[in-house]
Amino acid sequence: MAQPLKVLYVDDEADIRNIVEFALEDEPDIVISICASGQEALSLVDELQPDLVLLDVMMPAMDGPTTLQRLRERPMHQKTPVAFVTAKVQPNEVAFFQSLGAVGVIAKPFDPMTLADQVRAAWKRHHG
Amino acid sequence: MADASIPTRLRKLEQLRAEYHAQLPRRLDDLESRWAALSSGHADAGQLEELQRLVHGLAGSAGTFGMGALGQAARALEQALGGLDDVANALDAQERASLASAFAALHEQARVPPEPLAMRATPAELGPDDDENRLLFVIEDDAQQAENMAAQLGAFGWEVRSLPDATAARAALQDTTPAAVIVDMTLPEGLHAGPEMIGGIERSTGAHLPHVVVSSRWDWPSRLAAARSGADAYFVKPVDIAALTDRLDILSRRRPPKPYRVLIVEDTAILAEHYAQVLSDAGIEARIVVEAPRLLDTLADFNPELVLMDLYMPACTGIEAARVVRQDPKFTSVPIVFLSTESGRTQQLAAMQTGADDFLEKPISDSDLVAAVSVRAERFRTLAALIRQDSLTGLLNHVAFKLRLDNEVARVDRSKASLALAMLDIDHFKQVNDTHGHPVGDRVIHGLSQLLRKRLRASDLIGRYGGEEFGVLLPDTSPQIAVRLIDSLREQFSQIHFTSGKGEPFTCTFSAGVAAFTAGTAASALLRTTDEALYVAKRHGRNRVCLAEPPNNPLAESRDETQTSKPYDAHNRPVAHH
Q1: In terms of CA atoms, which chain B residue is nearest residue A59?
Q2: What is the pLDDT of residues B308-332, one digit of tens each?
Q3: Which among A5, A9, A15 is the top mutation candidate for probing chain B, defined by the most B β-carbons within 10 Å of its own β-carbon?
Q4: Contacts 24+ apart (CB under 8 A), A56-60
Q5: What is the pTM of this model?
Q6: Whether residue B468 is found in the same domain as residue B381
Q7: pLDDT tens digits for B85-109?
Q8: Which of B1, B63, B230 sits opposite A128 (nearest CB)?
Q9: Pairs of CB atoms within 8 A across A/B
Q10: Does residue B126 belong to any structural domain of this protein?
């Protein structure tokens, strides 16, 4: 991978944001940006042009699925890959997220030491 | 995790978890007071939602911070709270009780510290041991080419399973994970069916399958197809097997380098232990000497790659101790780094004269210590390896091989164990160089060195003795076994197809002499006997192995080409994979 993967992570939980930063900041092939809400994410995406957006599902004001929907309303981001990070990983729940157009679901709780591999895998599944 | 070491990251993670654990009581108090307000009716639905969200956050983060049971307790509370849609309605006794017990469970779990990180297996530990996995899948529809490649890769210690098409390969990959896959670009299923099939599997499993694409085509669509499948390498047919095995080695190797060995000489035991802890957390092997007189034994025993020395000790100064280290010829070049509170230039200069490499001022931060030590130990190891190793093959060079041979002969003479020496020489090597050029000749030498490394045990010594001559020392090996082993190597080497600069395949052979050590023989005499046996092999037509008879007996030829046609099963013998 010549270009590092630009990843935007969106989660309202400060603890999770800290640990995601820890888990991904030292990866040479990943550049991580983090924000705390769907609105903030939407204000960042045009400038950031992420390769992958990771969304927490349950957030106040604007939840993950709504954020995805708003993102898709923008012509520039109709194809930006999005994955959900959630504890809801029952087969029917995963199927629901996929029906929204998510490229993957990363289960919470995740192992901080292997999150990077999961992120790469989610991206690879989409891009091969 | 390429640039930050795993131990460093684990320490940082440990710290994040400790911080998380420390703020839990405050966080739970906050949840409880919110709940108290709600349950006494002094709150509205918005506040219930806020509480639900906070509990949800706790449920989501606790597991990630190594507190899975807390996460589950929070999840249970989240569900209990989720059932309450309207706080205005009075709660019944049962609801109150179940919520109270959910809170109690949360408190209880919050007191349990995060599970220690060491006990949590990382995926690398859970995964198959790639050092041991020597299985390759060769997906190739041309039976002749598949067989040829299997034979050649087999010579390098790979176990090969051939698959004729994408359908068979897909089925085989479902229940077996090889160390790597070699896949033909074009299969019966289509022009780019090979990489397309692998790409499909990677997408569905989400995991990378190490694979190399071989193809007779060099056009853009083919290269693009291989790139899209995430191929690790692309080889054009006819494939240069030595280059391919080099690549496969890298793809299948996960073994971390050996940790650096650092000796700490420090009279304050608690400080010494602290340094040792910091270094071992960073993956460095540390040994402590608290009393200077113990230094000599530990030096010889531990063979450090760096000495970390306190400048002031009660029994002697660090400078004196450094002189003692330097007096041993084995340690004239080992880096010595002084630790001291002394910043005076006079003391430092005096220490420099003993060959001190650096001064670190106490107190030193953990990360500075690790950085200072690893950089110097790494440089020492690289230099030491350069001095010992042949630059083309990475094997022991002439001087190092003879030195080890001397040691080994002395050891065997004492212990009465058996020892065999073999000298191998590539046949008509000058012709290879003249016909194909030196770079191609180098590839042949490299190919033979790779083969030797693959097929011999870790305890066998392999040296590049001269231009195209190799020495192999086989401890605990009878002359008969040695001949069979070297002969199997001869057979395998003759099957390797090298590629000329023009892309034409060619093969090479070697001749070898083998001699057994007999008690009382000097290393130089053993070398001479082996060389004579090699000479006999050359004179009798090359591409054969000759065993030197014990002293005073004529040299006997043990094999000729007709006799060696039955392959020797080297798997009967422990083979070290490097």
Answers
A1: B53
A2: 988 877 778 888 888 888 887 778 7
A3: A15
A4: A56/A10, A56/A11, A56/A12, A56/A13, A56/A16, A56/A84, A56/A85, A56/A86, A56/B60, A57/A84, A57/A85, A57/A86, A57/A88, A57/A97, A58/A86, A58/B53, A58/B56, A59/A10, A59/A11, A59/A12, A60/A12, A60/B49, A60/B50, A60/B53
A5: 0.39
A6: no
A7: 665 566 777 778 888 888 888 988 8
A8: B230
A9: 84
A10: no
